[in-house]
Amino acid sequence: MIGKTMNGTSKMTTITRRIFFLSALLFSINSVQAASSWPDGKPVTWIVPYPPGGSTDVLARSIAQELDKKLNARVIVENRPGATGTIGAARVARAKPDGLTLLGTSIGPQAIAPHLMAKLPYDPIASFKPVITIGTIPHVLVVGAKQPYQNVKELIDAAKAEPGKLAYASGGTGTILQMQGELLQIKTGVRFVHVPYKGDSPALQDTLGQQVQFMFAPIAAALPHIQSGTLRALAVTSTDRLKALPNVPTMQQEGFDDFAVEQWQAVFVPVDTPDDTVQKINADIAEMLTTPTVKTLADKLGITLAGGTPDDLDKTRKADFEKWGSVIKQTNIKN
């Protein structure tokens, strides 16, 4: 009797194991098929949390057009501007985690704004799963051609001689352009006057017009003026010298450690999106970054295309979140 019971139990255990194995195998197959078929003919909405016409928007539309061709499915770019990019980000955080709603955003809403806004409608880390880094935008420290400063040291020496007198422009409070000015103050112990503008363009115009002494500007916007001689480039914020400005030193070469600053653009999805789907989106967008159309546009915008894994982006966003949070705390910046 005992032998029969043990034998029956053994048979039941074997059957149970087989059922478990087949269920796991079926689940795995279904997961792979779901990821490989993304988006399965369904339209994809690519949220850009900025107004139309900016570099994030223009590049997103170019990539979306290329994805249209590859996926045989509509990829619709939808602008949701406002509140320093956080309105669009909140829209994606609330979206269904099926890979059909993407957030194409930049460093501001994910690593800077959260430290400035008391009630953010999402968690910049916990609400999103990273997909891929689209590219990075280096910046250049510039002064108007009529300013006397020939290098960063001369600018800092002048500021030390007259504390609180020299002013720098930015595209607004909480932008990466302001953050670099604040970081320079921390590194040097010098106090500058921050003059925020409603956008990078008016800030650059007043730098050209000598109303302010300097600014950290996106390379694409500043380069024509540097080449024409109306702006003087003192240093670039990239890790290495730029091909477009081979004679301009980096901030590190000017004596400032840990001053490599690049404004990244990246894609995120709601946090519960399956990993297999994330990997499929990553692979498809990475392929689009190699197309001639996207590469040509990126060159015009001054964007260095990146790519990489979701983990690469995760490390970048977390490092920048900590870095700029520390800068904001040390300088007591208020929105």
From TrEMBL:
Q: Which residues form a coiled coil?
A: none
Superkingdom assignment: Bacteria
Per UniProt, which keywords does this protein have? Receptor, Signal
Q: Does the keyword Membrane apply?
A: no
**Residue span of the signal peptide, if any?**
1-34
Matching entries from InterPro entries are given as: BUG (IPR005064), Bug_dom1 (IPR042100)
- Carries keyword Signal? yes
Q: Which family does it belong to?
A: Belongs to the UPF0065 (bug) family.
What name is this protein filed under?
A: Putative Bug-like extracytoplasmic solute binding receptor, TTT family
Q: What is the lineage of its organism?
A: Bacteria, Pseudomonadati, Pseudomonadota, Betaproteobacteria, Burkholderiales
